[in-house]
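Objective 1b: paired records.
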Amino acid sequence: MNDTSSTAEAMRLRALQAMTPQRRLGLALGWSQSVRELTRSSLHQQHPELPPQELHRLLAERLLGKELAQKAYGPFINHV
């Protein structure tokens, strides 16, 4: 689904191409941080009983995938 007109999309693309690599990287990092914060908030609302460490592990699974998260953090003990 795309609700952006082709004209608006072309303008967005030109604006991104006009940015320095540092600026584009800054935007990407900001977007990534926003995704992490929104996901963490959603997980906390769904599982308010989880301690912060377990919430962090669940967040890692959502963002990295189960296999990579378990390689990074070890097996999930109290997986939801």
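Objective 1b, second protein:
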Amino acid sequence: MKKQKKLIMLSNLLLDSLKKLNRSRLKQIQTLMEDFNDKCLEASKDKHLFDTAVEKSWLIGAESIRSRIERNLNDFSHHLQRFKELINTDETVMPNFIDIHAELVQTEQEFGELQFDLKEKTISVTTGDIVLNDISFGPFGIKLSICQLEKLYTDIPYRIIALEPNPAGGNDSVTHPHVSDERLCEGDGHVAIRNAIEQGRFCDFFTLIKSILQTYNPDSPYVSLDDWQGRSCYDCGYTISDDESYYCERCDREYCGQCSTYCRVCDTTVCLGCSSECYGCKEPICKDCMHVCKECEEAFCENCINEKGLCENCEAERNKNEDECSEKTDAQV
């Protein structure tokens, strides 16, 4: 009886949210139609101006208008794609209470008991262990926010939560190649997921998400499976494997090959922040092997500075000054 009461409550909440979602979709279409109309008016004005400029041989003006039309067309193309996406949606038949109740029952048969948080107004299911290329990511919770359904066209109303997380090396927010900060990269499944929510096919919705989690797309991961066990470069954030990481002995952090070097004096591996460039030979040196010229105060390696603490140029300048003083003294004598 308690379980049945929960399903009835959930069905009513979902039905109400789907009605709000449908209204939201129609309002989105209304707004896009207004924008579409405005852009058509702008295009009509530009056509008139362009025709006038061409007829009067105002070539510079015509070229300027052409450039503006080109920019507007790029924006218009993106806007039109968004407009078509909403307009061309398969006719959404609003499910009734019985339909939604049946969907919830089917979801429980497929995934086990639904988790319902009355306070947060969320429903969740749990997947089994997700394994890709012999890497285990553990089970995931798919949490759908009932109150956020009406924001489907501007935000993702669900979260993907790693229950036994095995995050990418150096990036705890990536818990699956296609999940970052609990948000799923839907890829080609975007339209199918949206349609399932719009039509109240919640079992299909959860199944689609599970299917994406069980699939690896090497073209669009947040972190590839090849780099999963790697760690993040402290400087640029690039994920690196153990073989590609370099440990800076000065700051005790790990870096990639592009963000590290080695001291040409002591051969110590250091990051770019803990190294300097010898002003003389232009080779990298660590700060422990750096010597500052007493005259010009530039940094040099030990090979480019003498025992007096002078670089070659400053030594030559000092010798020159000493010779000039010696010559003056001899002349006075």
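The longest strand covers residues 140-145. Residues 97-226 form a domain with the Ubiquitin Conjugating Enzyme fold (CATH 3.10.110).
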